[in-house]
Amino acid sequence: MTTRNLLLLPGDGIGPEAMAEVRKIIAYMNAEHDAGFTTDEGLVGGSAYDAHGAAISEGDMEKALAADAVLFGAVGGPKWDDVPYEVRPEAGLLRLRKDLKLFANLRPAICYPALAAASSLKAELVEGLDILIVRELTGGVYFGEPKEIVDLGNGQKRGIDTQVYDTYEIERIAGVAFELARTRGNRVCSMEKRNVMKSGVLWHQVVSDTHKRNYSDVALDHMLADAGGMQLVRAPKQFDVIVTDNLFGDMLSDVAAMLTGSLGMLPSASLGAPDARTGKRKALYEPVHGSAPDIAGKGIANPIAMIASFAMCLRYSFNLVREADNLEKAIAEVLDGGIRTGDIMAEGCRQVGTVEMGDAILAAFRRLSA
Ligand code: IPM
Ligand code: MG
């Protein structure tokens, strides 16, 4: 039997509650479908800081490097607002991305029909929305050096971050975007700021070259990232796949997320390059929402983004396509049935807590898998 090794890093805030609902799905797949998942657990973010004084321990980093896939909850909270910058909760996530070389971040923004009314845009603009943001995740201004605050000695300080991209980094993220476009609407829109940034000029050129060389069957457009942000809220359905750098991708994916009705709905996958020998990619799956400390521990958090992240894990790490489809369908069915957590509550629906939402999705998944 295949074994599939998962490392669960629930993290802080609502992370553990949301992860508990995924654990139930894993247990069901093991018990009734011999899925062969093994799970190990670790700490990340504030909880790791409390236990080890680091945002993730070396031991847990080793586990992450050895796992077939990492499931990540959320990190951060006011409790750790004043910890040193190097060990702040987010540092754990950034270290995982960097050390696992997870350069490709896939952020789908799908508007479930049942939630179109919850969008901040008019329902007709978002109904049926299905876009995929492919964000570069291990380069750009997040990691470029120098990155520092220097004392200028005249009472002034200077904060420096460096936006830097090499050809290979742009080529490989463009390749991921084109490959994924072929499995969907076959269109890619690349976003940068070549009108003010040298890295944008290079980005534009390398994406165009990569397209010409290997992917001329895919339709390619370019947009300046500010105009792209505007188009995303004006007419989001014009997009299929958007490929962009680390910082623009961070911002544009939050915008795209809100279009769908709730930040609590969206999953993401962060993938490395396929291993030359085994073809396997390192991978981490996480909900786009944060740790939501204000509602943590109350049993009211929406576990859908975490469960949908596990569906992405089934699809991208284990090629369990039917299972992934069924889990996504289960989520849509439960929403169609009018079951809602507080964040997506609407008139005439039934409000439930985290556990009940997880149970409802598991029941639908079980039915669809029969
Ligand atoms: C995200 C988050 C992270 C980022 C933070 C928590 C470091 O906003 O995954 O979008 O900026 O990448
Ligand atoms: Mg973000």
Task: Give your account of this protein's structure.
The protein is globular. It has helices spanning 15-33, 46-52, 58-66, 89-99, 123-126, 167-182, 198-214, 225-234, 246-259, 304-316, 321-336, 354-369; strands at 4-11, 37-41, 69-74, 104-110, 130-136, 144-151, 157-162, 187-192, 219-224, 241-244, 267-274, 281-287, 339-340, 350-351. The protein is built from twelve helices and 14 strands. Strand 1 (4-11), helix 1 (15-33) and strand 2 form a beta-alpha-beta unit. The chain is α/β, with parallel strands linked by helices. The protein has two domains: 1-103 and 272-370, Isopropylmalate Dehydrogenase, CATH 3.40.718.10; 110-264, Isopropylmalate Dehydrogenase (3-Layer(aba) Sandwich), CATH 3.40.718.10. Helix 1 (15-33) runs parallel beside helix 12, helix 8 packs parallel to helix 9 (246-259) and helix 11 (321-336) packs across helix 12. The structure holds 3-isopropylmalic acid and magnesium ion.
| CATH topology category name of the largest domain | Isopropylmalate Dehydrogenase
Poorly predicted ranges: none
Order of helices and strands: EHEHHEHEHEEEHEHEHEHEEHHEEH
Multimerization status: single chain
Fourth-tier CATH superfamily name of the largest domain: Isopropylmalate Dehydrogenase
Bound molecules: 3-isopropylmalic acid, magnesium ion
**What is Rg?**
20 Å
Termini separation (Å)? Answer: 20 Å
Quick one: how many beta strands?
14
**Helix- and strand-based class?**
alpha/beta
What is the CATH architecture term of the largest domain? Answer: 3-Layer(aba) Sandwich
| Number of structural units classed as domains | 2
In helices, the fraction of residues equals 40-55%
Q: For the record, what CATH class of the largest domain applies? A: Alpha Beta
Largest sheet: 10 strands, mixed
For the biggest β-sheet, the strand order reads 2-1-3-12-11-4-5-10-8-9
**Mean pLDDT over all positions:** 96
Shape: globular
Counted by DSSP, the helix tally is: 12
